[in-house]
């Protein structure tokens, strides 16, 4: 998309996200406008904004789009009128995920912070004195809203695992609660109405991905914590905001701890499939001597996982990508020491809902005497007995003209007796431990009553 300067001055603004926070930069005296104010990675869009935003990221942060920075989405431009400058800005917003927070500032900025996006609403770093609040460039929150996660984006996401999407869901709750807190200055506070609005939003998130228990459990925990910490009994937006922020931190810490526990078991030759961020981190922290990665149809996210691992200089082992159908053959011919997979959901009886193909690999591994480890935070245990298995697009299997039925299940169910252990932030669980966790998680559902 090319920018037409006739209808205003086109600029790009990129929000770099890492572990729920976004990067903001303070503009230095070297820039022509808004010196001393905070914004995203930005610059004039003299040609194609899609190309320019990547150039700005490289120049202003030293990070490489497509390597350590991954494009998430762009949003509709935001028009910003600045009467003091006599200019109309057309802001093209973008969202990228960053693998780390190591940033090399250019001369255009003299400071940086990683903050919750909600801090853009009233000046982040705010203390009791308004003079201590950090001022942002005009309409920075409006630009962020155009690329922020939504119920719709979570429902449509077929690239990320359940743990990542659960954090996105908490970000949706956080952002809306933060906006309601900021609006109190203009409209006053109505805790009951705020709580009702946020509860309705949380309910829509619960149904966005019904097969993902971790999303349900983590949203439930945030709403329950908000109810429990409202000392005056009036649960409002500030309580939900605090609970969502704490929930994001807790979720990330639980996933990290599960990965660290699993890493201790990863040595020798390992087979995996699909894209689990927790498994990916466990492999990086472990000491595999060889990796087999199933391509994971239909989206083939396993190929992207293999490429990502191959690019990791710290991981020095051969990596083999193979079709899902070849997994049983390879398990029978290669000396695989362990199968390591993630889980979208762990059911009450210990069976596991995960990417289609997991059941086949687990059954083949049992036949060959290869142990199967499921790596997941305990929040992935489901409190429900029913199973809601999502299906993919039929055209990914067949797009011809013949009168054919098409089966394209996205998930399958692996029996508990094919699984050696469940590796969580609490350590390795046995089958009988799952029931205790179900009881804990059911207590978090009381907020809906």
From TrEMBL:
It comes from the Archaea. Residues 7-144 form the Nudix hydrolase domain. One of its GO terms (biological process) is L-methionine salvage from methylthioadenosine. The keyword Protein biosynthesis applies. One of its GO terms (molecular function) is S-methyl-5-thioribose-1-phosphate isomerase activity. SUPFAM superfamilies: NagB/RpiA/CoA transferase-like (SSF100950), Nudix (SSF55811). Pfam families: IF-2B, NUDIX. Keywords: Initiation factor, Protein biosynthesis. InterPro entries: IF-2B-related, IF_2B-like_C, NagB/RpiA_transferase-like, NUDIX_hydrolase-like_dom_sf, NUDIX_hydrolase_dom. Belongs to the eIF-2B alpha/beta/delta subunits family. This is Initiation factor 2B.
């Amino acid at each position: 998309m090319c920018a037409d300067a006739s209808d205003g001055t086109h600029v790009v603004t990129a929000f770099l996200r890492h572990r729920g926070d976004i990067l903001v930069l303070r503009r230095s005296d070297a820039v022509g406008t808004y010196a001393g104010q905070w914004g995203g990675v930005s610059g004039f869009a003299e040609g194609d904004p899609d190309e320019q935003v990547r150039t700005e990221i490289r120049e202003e942060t030293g990070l490489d789009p497509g390597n350590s920075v991954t494009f998430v989405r762009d949003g509709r431009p935001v028009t910003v009128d600045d009467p003091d400058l006599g200019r109309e800005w057309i802001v093209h917003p973008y969202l990228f995920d960053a693998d780390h927070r190591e940033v090399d500032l250019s001369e255009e900025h003299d400071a940086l912070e990683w903050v919750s996006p909600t801090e853009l609403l009233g000046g982040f770093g705010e203390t009791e004195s308004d003079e201590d609040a950090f001022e942002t460039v005009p309409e920075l929150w409006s630009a962020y809203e155009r690329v922020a996660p939504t119920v719709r984006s979570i429902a449509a996401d077929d690239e990320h695992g359940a743990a990542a999407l659960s954090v996105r869901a908490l970000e949706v709750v956080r952002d809306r609660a933060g906006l309601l807190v900021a609006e109190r200055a203009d409209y006053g506070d109505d805790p009951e109405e705020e709580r009702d609005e946020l509860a309705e939003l949380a309910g829509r998130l619960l149904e966005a991905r019904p097969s993902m228990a971790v999303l349900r459990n983590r949203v439930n925990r945030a709403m329950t914590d908000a109810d429990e910490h409202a000392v005056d009994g009036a649960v409002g937006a500030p309580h939900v905001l605090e609970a969502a922020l704490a929930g994001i931190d807790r979720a990330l810490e639980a996933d990290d701890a599960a990965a660290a526990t699993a890493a201790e078991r990863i040595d020798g030759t390992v087979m995996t499939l699909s894209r689990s961020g927790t498994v990916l981190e466990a492999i990086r922290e472990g000491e595999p001597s060889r990796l087999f990665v199933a391509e994971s149809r239909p989206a083939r996210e396993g190929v992207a996982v293999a490429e990502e691992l191959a690019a990791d200089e710290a991981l020095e082992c051969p990596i083999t990508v193979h079709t899902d159908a070849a997994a049983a053959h390879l398990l029978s011919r290669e000396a695989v020491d362990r199968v390591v997979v993630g889980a979208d959901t762990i059911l009450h009886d210990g069976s596991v809902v995960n990417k289609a193909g997991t059941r086949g690999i687990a059954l083949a591994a049992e036949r060959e005497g290869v142990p199967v480890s499921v790596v997941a935070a305990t929040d992935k245990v489901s409190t429900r007995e029913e199973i809601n298995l999502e299906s993919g697009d039929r055209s990914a299997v067949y797009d011809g003209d013949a009168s054919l039925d098409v089966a394209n299940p996205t998930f399958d169910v692996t029996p508990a007796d094919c699984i050696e252990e469940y590796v969580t932030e609490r350590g390795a669980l046995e089958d009988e431990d799952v029931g205790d966790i179900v009881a804990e998680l059911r207590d978090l559902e009381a907020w809906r009553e």
